[in-house]
């Protein structure tokens, strides 16, 4: 069985492909973006299968690929902050690339698993002291963030979140033709992540600073960011990766 993993040379792609590679013949379609890969050749070598260097928005590249048995679509521009000023690039890759991935999966008649993001929910849910739930930002200092539910309305607050939401919406156009699975992860961190990439995400930025033993300070109103930072008890794993441990369930982390 053959799996095509777009963005396969990236952080989640490498882990996914390694886990699949005992049973699947995995191929990556990846642009080996310089923002993510300091050493593109090393990233390609680390992938447990063939790597086709190309852009997911390039139809010609897709047409040259061998038909897989499944498309796992991970390739994306992933910087939430960067998306706010490089919106054309984010739309081109995250919306246009997802459309092309779905079109090709449909043409091949194979399932697609597409990576969306929790960012589609924006600020998400807050639980207040009287147990009521509100959505979006809140001035209530007693409110704590609560886990989003799958059925929650999409309220993205970044272009990145918008592109992920639009990508999901366009995938539904193909739902009658091929099986479609959408995954919406919260922050994913771990060994192999491009900590040098300033746009990877705030948690990765914290971890990079922890590794350099330089502290970050966050000020401002209570927010998901500050909540995260309050959960600052951490220990070093045997792998050398700093693991964050919740200090108190009160902060919901
Ligand atoms: N890591 C997280 O916290 C997180 C959370 C939610 C969702 N996601 C989603 O998971 C997926 C994988 O994320 P990741 O953390 O592995 O990111 P990553 O940056 O490590 O990997 C993305 C890969 O996509 C490639 N890529 C970028 N643009 C491309 C293009 N136009 N054509 C082909 N390849 C391209 C990059 O070179 C890179 O190898 C993304 O869709 C991301 O939005 C990640």
Q: What keyword list fits this structure?
A:
253 residues; alpha/beta; 3 domains; binds nicotinamide-adenine-dinucleotide
Strand order of the largest sheet: 3-2-1-4-5-9
How do the SSEs run, as a string of H and E? EHEHEHEHHEEEEHEHHEE
- The residue-averaged pLDDT reads 86
What ligands are attached or bound here? nicotinamide-adenine-dinucleotide
- Radius of gyration, CA atoms, in whole angstroms: 19 Å
The helix content is 25-40%
Look up the CATH topology of the largest domain.
Answer: Rossmann fold
Task: Write a concise synopsis of the structure shown.
With about 250 residues, the chain is of the alpha/beta class.
Structure explained in plain terms:
The chain is globular. The protein folds into three domains: 2-122 and 157-183, 3-Layer(aba) Sandwich (Rossmann fold), CATH 3.40.50; 123-147, no CATH class; 202-251, no CATH class. It contains eight helices and eleven strands. Helix 1 (11-20) links the parallel strand 1 (2-6) and strand 2 (25-30). The strands form three sheets. Strands 3-2-1-4-5-9 form a six-stranded parallel sheet, sandwiched between helices. A three-stranded antiparallel sheet has the order 7-6-8, with no helix packed on it. 31% of the residues lie in helices and 17% in strands. With 253 residues, the chain is an alpha/beta fold. Residues 6-7, 9-13, 30-33, 36-37, 55-57, 74-78, 93, 97, 115, 117, 185, 187-188, 194, 201 line the site of nicotinamide-adenine-dinucleotide. Nicotinamide-adenine-dinucleotide binds at residues 6-7, 9-13, 30-33, 36-37, 55-57, 74-78, 93, 97, 115, 117, 185, 187-188, 194, 201.
């Amino acid at each position: 069985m053959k799996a095509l993993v777009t963005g396969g040379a990236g952080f989640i792609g490498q882990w996914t492909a390694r886990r699949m590679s005992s049973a699947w013949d995995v191929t990556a379609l990846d642009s080996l973006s310089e923002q993510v890969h300091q050493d593109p050749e090393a990233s390609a070598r680390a992938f447990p299968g063939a790597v086709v260097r190309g852009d997911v928005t390039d139809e010609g590249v897709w047409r040259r690929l061998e038909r897989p048995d499944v498309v796992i679509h991970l390739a994306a521009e992933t910087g939430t902050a960067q998306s706010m000023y490089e919106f054309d690039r984010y739309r081109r890759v995250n919306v246009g690339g997802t459309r092309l991935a779905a079109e090709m999966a449909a043409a091949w008649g194979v399932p697609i698993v597409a990576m969306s993001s929790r960012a589609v929910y924006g600020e998400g849910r807050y639980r207040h002291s009287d147990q009521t739930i509100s959505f979006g930002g809140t001035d209530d200092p007693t409110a704590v963030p609560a886990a989003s539910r799958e059925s929650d309305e999409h309220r993205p607050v970044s272009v990145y979140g918008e592109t992920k939401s639009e990508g999901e919406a366009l995938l539904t156009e193909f739902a009658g033709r091929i099986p479609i699975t959408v995954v919406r992860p919260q922050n994913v961190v771990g060994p192999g992540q491009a900590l040098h990439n300033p746009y990877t995400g705030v948690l990765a930025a914290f971890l990079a600073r922890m590794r350099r033993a330089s502290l970050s300070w966050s000020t401002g109103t209570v927010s998901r960011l500050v909540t995260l930072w309050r959960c600052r008890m951490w220990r070093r794993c045997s792998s050398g990766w700093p693991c964050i441990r919740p200090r108190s369930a009160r902060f919901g982390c």
